[in-house]
Amino acid sequence: MEGQIGDLEVEKHVQYILSVEKRKDNFESVVMEHLRMNGAYWGLTTLDLLGKLDMVDEDEIISWVMECQHESGGFGGNVGHDPHILYTLSAVQVLALFDKLNVLDIDKVSNYIAGLQNEDGSFSGDMWGEIDTRFSYIAICSLSLLQRLDKINVEKAVNYIVSCKNLDGGFGCTPGAESHAGQIFCCVSALALTGSLHHVDKDLLGWWLCERQVKSGALNGRPEKLPDVCYSWWVLSSLIMIDRAHWIDKEKLIKFILDCQDKENGGISDRPDDAVDVFHTYFGVAGLAHLEYPGLKAVDPAYALPVDVVNRIFFSR
Amino acid sequence: MEWKEEGEERPLSQRPEWSDVTPVPQDDGPNPVVPIAYKDDFTETMDYFRAVYFADERSLRSLHVTAEAIHMNAGNYTVWHFRRLILGALNADLHEELNFIKKVANGNPKNYQIWHHRRWVAEKLGSDATSKELDFTKKILSLDAKNYHAWSHRQWVLQELGGWEDELDYCKQLLEDDIFNNSAWNQRYFVITKSPFLGGLEAMRESEVNYTVGAIIAKPENESPWRYLRGLYKDDAQSWVNDPQVSSVCLTVLSAKRNTVFALSTLLDLLCHGFQPSQDFINAVDALKTPDLDQSDSNLATAVCSVLGHMDPMRVNYWAWRKNKLPAQTA
Asked: Is the ipTM of this structure higher than 0.85?
């Protein structure tokens, strides 16, 4: 079938996400326990993009999410786990999917996040002090969704991100660190959400980003590295936010993502014929949404949520 | 599993030192969205972990159970947190802890929790840890020379604890192993700009240009040295345009007619910054044109864009955009 774009196995992917993984020797499940909050976000957002969020029990999910919240206001990866900024964003995003941000004590969550900002404007992941521009994005994204950005020093936060900008136009995890598509997504999103995109050299970064596309049409995260479906999200979202998405070959990328599906059992993997997981399933589907694959909801490149969910937060007063 | 100590083969429920503890099962809720299935011994270890965690028991046996839990699942950040609390309470030997982390990292070199824990320990040990940290990251990088966590840790060690003396040599060695290693090129830039032993970017510029030109000639399709070359001039684009070595390496690569994409894009950038090309450049680009291209492009920059659109079809929209954006007076 020369030249025909393949099929997205929607039903199979839905079933994959909903499926109960009963096999006792499934080690993938075991290592997911402490980050189930992330897993819930990846799975549920995928279902929403596919128009199937109604297939889950909303009340059960929300009550489980709230069980993961601590005294401090932060959320853990699962019940009984310590709070961390990573899971706090996922919790906020999951609640946003169900239009249930109102179950939160917004100030309590916001204060937890704001309390993680450091003197130099950077953010720690939790009380143990790991610093990374990923956490800058997470703080800004969650506070923006909660409409409490005023609780942090935005100028300092922006300055810290800008200090992580490299000569190739990209961004790393800390000042001087190598440009990496995942970190670039975080920095560009954070700048977008704070009205600070003028700090980005869009032409230079756009070129670096479109150079991530390799012969197969797939995207990698750094020069001379292997491609991975998840970069369909990190690279593409970044390109969209700087208005340069047309610099990649979209058809070839769509074909690559579709080739990464497990067409029998559902789910999407990092590259063709590898094992699938929820993480890559989300990023593959979200990437296809960015590429305007038919039948998918539009997804916001900065908030990483369906556009209608974002609109509902900001436009429904 | 070679990490188990002698006498620890028995399950926790059968060890006398654990007989007073009631294990606590994981509360997954009635119908989990992301349901988890467990291996039996993992379940047991985690049940005992939860028991001491909820009781806040910061003892030696707690330390051991965190080690077992970590070996089974190094991503469980709550276990690492509690381990730090225990290490503090026991006033543990942190050099021993570095050895423990080393063992765990061998199987999990890309795990965030391990690297953060390593940093936490190194911070407490201070400059006592410098050579160990440089050795440790070197070891990890010998297995995967682009490990992002290892590089991040190494940069932190250099800036906080020192040890810059051999770093440029180390970058050189890595690039000899793999001239395409973008992480090593990034580290090279980090060293020449920040090392207290080297005098800074401008002082290093000439020798670095020589080095980079050599790397480009060896592998002109290598993205990193082209970007590095531009980076050596940072905000001083005029000096970059005026350096004869820069334009000359473009000409050399173009004349060889192989792997010319980055040479062409660099020439394009030079032209956009006012570079005045000699006839040699015009001839070299002419020689790369295919019959279907417009042979009468009087403007070299336009011709370069056309050739690039043909040679690098994946990015045809980018090259078309560059062509559209060309300033009127470009040669």
From this structure: yes
